[in-house]
Every structure is written in structure tokens, then in C-alpha cells.
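Much of what follows relies on a compact textual record of a protein's fold. An example makes this concrete, so a full record is given next.
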Amino acid sequence: MNKNRLEAFSDGVLAIIITIMILEIKTPEKDSFESLKPLIPVFLSYVLSFVYIGIYWNNHHHMLQATKKVNGSILWSNLFLLFWLSLIPFATSWIGSQHFSAVPMSVYGFILLMCAISYFILQNKIIKLEGKDSVLNRAVEKDRKGKISLACYILAIPLSFVSPWISGLLYIAVALIWIIPDPRIEKQINKI
């Protein structure tokens, strides 16, 4: 099965997710700079989530660049990833409107954790189809960044009840780890 439709569909869903997030930011009713102040948490949550969606789009693109074919299992795994990514606008709106309070921050972390797990599942389904000698497997076999990310999310969820700011810093740390596109796949592709 050709991977082009999977890529196009995923790109479309991610574009819609970003659109939904920006539409959640309501314009102030007054025309003063002071009226923008209540929107600061909403805007900050949007920026963080926009970066996360961008990271997933970028890494998803690289992963599919290293993929030759897809099957039904990969299609369903991709939908599982898109499901969790589609919940980011909800959590983004909630953490922004509630000024990064504990419960919304923990839910945000849970959604990010599930995004990471579903990405890992998709990655492994592709490797299973293409084999241990595949470009993707050679590129991600150690995956320190992925393991660090999972650990940060798992820590951040309960820590949000101790201090939502600590969990927020962990979410930012994970984003910073991934903000530069993963060069491992490009290196493996260039070796071919």
C-alpha cells in the first residue's frame, strides 16, 4: 500500500488541529493593551501546543520519509496517534483558561504521554513491516530522547498536583529536546 495518502491525511488533520487551537483564542472586547493581559495564559498555552504539534508533524514527516510502504496496522496506528493529537486543542484551551492549574496540567500531560506512546506504537509497526534492517530501525534503535520524554511526562502528571509550574517546565523541557528536527533519520537516509 502506498504511503502518500497516509501522509496527506495526517498533514490535513494536523493543520485542522492548529486551526482549532487558534480559533479558541477569543479577541478581547476592548481596544486596550490592558484587555490583552487575561489572554497571556491562553496565548502561552497555544505557543506550547503549537510547538508540540510542529514537532509531531516534523518527526512524522521524517518517519514516513524513511518508510517505503504501509499496511492496515500502520493505518490504524497512525489514526491512534492522530486521535491523541486531536485532543491537544481541548487541553490547550483548558490549561490556558484555568491559568495552568493542577488538574488541567495533569490532563495535558496525560494527553502528551499518550501522543508519545502512540507515536512509539506507530514507529514500531513500521519497523515490524519493514524489518530490523530498515532505515527507520537503524535511526531510532537507541531512542534516548523518546525514553527521556516518556519519563518526563510520567513525572509531570503527578507533579502537577505538587506544582503545576514544575510539570509545565517538564513539558517545555521535552519540547526543547525535540524542537530541532531529529537528524537520526536524515543521516540514515543519506547513507543509502
About this structure: Residues 69 and 106 are 37 Å apart (CA to CA).
